[in-house]
Amino acid sequence: MSLEPTAVDAAEVAAFRDAVLSKLAYAIGKDPEHAFDHDWFEAIALATRDRMIDRWMAHTEKSYREKRKRVYYLSLEFLIGRLLIDSMSNLGILEIARQALADLDVDLERIRRLEPDAALGNGGLGRLAACFMESMASLGVVAHGYGIRYEHGLFRQVILDGWQHEQTENWLDFGNPWEFERPEVSYLIGFGGSVVARAGETGETKHFWHWAEGVRSIAYDIPIVGWRGSSVNTLRLWRARAESDFHLERFNAGDHIGAVADEARAESISRVLYPADSTEAGQELRLRQEYFFVAASLQDLIRRHLTQHDDTLDNLPAYAAIQLNDTHPAIAVAELMRLLVDIHGMPWERAWERTVGTLSYTNHTLLPEALETWPVGLMERLLPRHMQIIYLINAYHLDSLRARDIHDAELLRAASLIEEDHGRRVRMGNLAFIGSHSINGVSALHTDLMRKTVFTYLHSLYPQRISNKTNGITFRRWLYQSNPELTRLLVSVLGEKLLDSPETMLRELEPYANDNSFRQRFAAQRRHNKDVLARLVKERLNIDLDPTALFDVQIKRIHEYKRQLLNLLHTVALYQAIRADPGGNWVPRVKIFGGKAAASYQRAKLIIKLANDIARTINDDPTVRGLLKVVFIPNYNVSQAERIIPAADLSEQISTAGLEASGTSNMKFALNGALTIGTMDGANVEMHGLIGGEHMFIFGLTAQQVEARKRAEDYNADASIAASSRLKEVLSAIRNGVFSPDDQERYTGLVDSLIWHDTFMVCADFEAYWQAQLEVESRWRDQTSWWRSAVLNTARVGWFSADRTIREYANEIWKVATPGVVIGR
């Protein structure tokens, strides 16, 4: 569907049509009569890419000429999704392309579905990085994203007999038409070996790292185009190659496996996103990945800086801002110090000032297990020079505290970069904190809790370093492209200026919430999107959905703190209630789940199995009469989200309060007019303030109440279960095998863990959640009230734009200019 006027310039249509035919002939080697759909996709993508290149080169040349300060965004994930429609829309050629292809009897809607999702991310962190890259381009910030070009990336989720199975994601099987390989941009990355200290010419000690293994990084560039084609930035991804070529002599000697062993070991670094780290080999590969992409990226940006800024690194903080997206790139602190001191001969104190002045760190989690730590032994073996540097940073850090007359043993132990309590480990969160001039949380609540929990001691020592930068989403992707029906409706009443200024102009929608005619049109676009999703579910799962039912959606990574289990308990309770009172005034409801569990996260995989067992039981039960349907959509990704979110009536944001850093799906759902049921957690708190509590369904314990319960040593779920016969019946049914007749013991451990150690307050919040869901049903029955709230959700969510977030980063952390989105065509 297009957002642009249908009348387009005939010459532009003809030019694009000719460009596609030229690519089909000279890049693909096909004529129209013999071209398959994938040939057409590649030709269209290449013709679109050509439209980016002039802007890309002009933007790059201008940034060099003006010596603009650059932002370098280091992230292990970039969940960029499909790029064809994204790029066409931002370039303003979507309708031109649609008409040009229609002239060739090619359906763009069919072709767009052939593009694979780039498997470069897992969840919110990777999607945030992608939104930020697009916003930086739209705002004119000169930026480079740095990550890994995973050959397979995150696994493809297949559900077999209700269980998750991981299969290889072959997203690169047909190549990637958006990327440019840069074989000339290559750096050698070292691992292992030893460090030798020698006296320098002036008597100072110099350290030389003689690594045991070298891995070569090869750059691949993807242009990221901003809105209206205003500027184009670069996402540079690194591929790992062996330092030396194939060992032909060993192969000819009969050692066919040994001849390729080094090549396989090196290339495994860029093979898979998040290899399972439950084994020592998996942990080592994860650390190798993190160091590999950080080392290549820092060498690359230093090369660029020296070329552009008079061959000196003294002014690095003035011209480079490096943002660490979580702890995955935290080794950058030690690596930048190594490069400045060992390679470029900068004195330690000056190098430390430049490092801290250049680096900043975004924290994304309050879960202690998610703040990475690495065994000292592994670091000493794999990165011996970095371990020396970390020890030295720690020594100077602790000495500086003692010099400030801070001698409290507990504080010094907590502030140390080395954890001593459970085997000596390097605390990467502390390293990122100490080595950065700015540390930010991603929602107001998260930032406040970060100061009080994971970084309480470091915050007391460096009280000015932590700030808040609440996450945002790009409306170009999550409204204009995902929901063209709603976008056209909004433009029809607010004008096309909305497309350039949604942050401010969405507020002008508020009066229409009281307009019955507009509410009906708003409901109609939702119904259209629900019809589309229902057809998709029928095609993939052979389950019939009623588009008039309440679509209740929870799509996100499967994790216990996100509490898909709480949603499933409510599903069972609702099922039991419908069966007990078949003549009741029930609101027809479709429960939609989607998300992947980490390959080694067995409890999360069991929750997926439970969801599918419950779905099978309910969907096959004729006594329910279609009043309740449950679907688990496999292989959730960006493209699936673009279909599901515009069709959602109710958005499930029910994490245990105090554990979700921010969330971004909550913003996407609200932007598209879904009402939120959720806890006061993450960005839900700010949404509550901006949208209004009467237009959401808030329930459950607060973060402070959760902490109080956790501190009670004898806490278990007995009291919660005793107070709710409904919950007791649900747990009994699951535990006794009602939903798993083939294995009645399957969920015994899962239920018992809730009873004896309700870590994530599933039982504690159950009854409040049930009552909130009753409020949902009551509001749904009053369609005037429901659609008024839906319109106001869309109208009041403009503040959660990634553009606003990037402006805050740019002004307050990076100190770079934001020229802004170009208004008009």
Summarize the structure.
One of its GO terms (cellular component) is cytoplasm. This protein is of the alpha/beta class and 825 residues long.
Radius of gyration: 27 Å
Shape: globular
Strand count, sense and closure of the main sheet? 9 strands, mixed
Taking the alpha carbons of the first and last residues, their distance comes to 20 Å
The CATH first-level class of the largest domain comes to Alpha Beta
**How much of the residues is beta strand, in percent?**
5-15%
CATH level 3 topology of the largest domain: Rossmann fold
Helix-residue proportion: 40-55%
Tell me the CATH architecture of the largest domain.
3-Layer(aba) Sandwich
Q: How many strand elements?
A: 22
Secondary structure topology:
Blueprint: H1 10-28, H2 37-66, E1 70-74, H3 84-91, H4 94-103, H5 108-112, H6 124-139, E2 143-148, E3 156-160, E4 163-167, E5 180-191, E6 194-199, E7 205-210, E8 213-225, E9 232-242, H7 248-252, H8 261-267, H9 280-308, H10 316-319, E10 320-325, H11 332-343, H12 348-358, E11 359-362, E12 373-375, H13 376-382, H14 384-403, H15 409-415, E13 418-419, E14 425-427, H16 428-434, E15 438-441, H17 444-452, H18 456-461, E16 466-468, H19 475-481, H20 484-494, H21 502-505, H22 516-541, E17 550-555, H23 564-580, E18 589-594, H24 602-619, E19 628-633, H25 638-644, E20 650-653, H26 665-671, E21 675-678, H27 684-691, E22 697-698, H28 703-711, H29 718-722, H30 725-735, H31 748-756, H32 762-781, H33 783-795, H34 802-814
Parallel strand pairs: 1-2, 1-10, 2-9, 10-11, 11-15, 15-16, 17-18, 17-20, 18-19, 20-21, 21-22
Antiparallel strand pairs: 3-4, 5-8, 6-7, 8-9, 12-14, 13-14
Modified residues (N6-(pyridoxal phosphate)lysine): 668
Catalytic activity: [(1->4)-alpha-D-glucosyl](n) + phosphate = [(1->4)-alpha-D-glucosyl](n-1) + alpha-D-glucose 1-phosphate
Protein name: Alpha-1,4 glucan phosphorylase
